[in-house]
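Per your request, structure below.
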């Protein structure tokens, strides 16, 4: 008996198998690069979390990368300043530098809100 063809699953970076056309297509993967738990880094994380909860509720994943613990990870996303937010998905990749306190600038920078 033939069933409907399924797209092959792919591996996500967190090791979970996902389908190309499932809810993961609408998922926002964000990386926040920081250097320790400085006031500026903590502010950036809080601001990012607040923005995501308001505009992307249930559709985002935040990965915090502390460059004090693993400085070589900065090379992959070409991080020159901290804190830096990198939108990995949806593509294209976008970067925002700073503590993310200007909500409108962050929304435009992430392409959540039109310019």
């Amino acid at each position: 008996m033939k069933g409907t063809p399924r797209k092959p699953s792919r591996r996500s970076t967190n090791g979970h198998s996902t389908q190309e056309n499932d809810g993961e297509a609408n998922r926002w993967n964000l990386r926040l690069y920081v250097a320790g738990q400085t006031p500026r880094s903590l502010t950036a994380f809080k601001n990012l979390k607040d923005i995501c909860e308001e505009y992307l509720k249930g559709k985002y994943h935040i990965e915090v990368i502390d460059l004090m613990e693993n400085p070589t990870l900065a090379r992959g996303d070409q991080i020159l300043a901290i804190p830096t937010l990198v939108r990995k998905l949806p593509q294209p990749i976008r970067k925002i530098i700073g503590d993310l306190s200007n909500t409108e600038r962050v929304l435009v920078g992430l392409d959540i809100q039109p310019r």
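Residues 38 and 83 are 10 Å apart (CA to CA).

Regards,
D.
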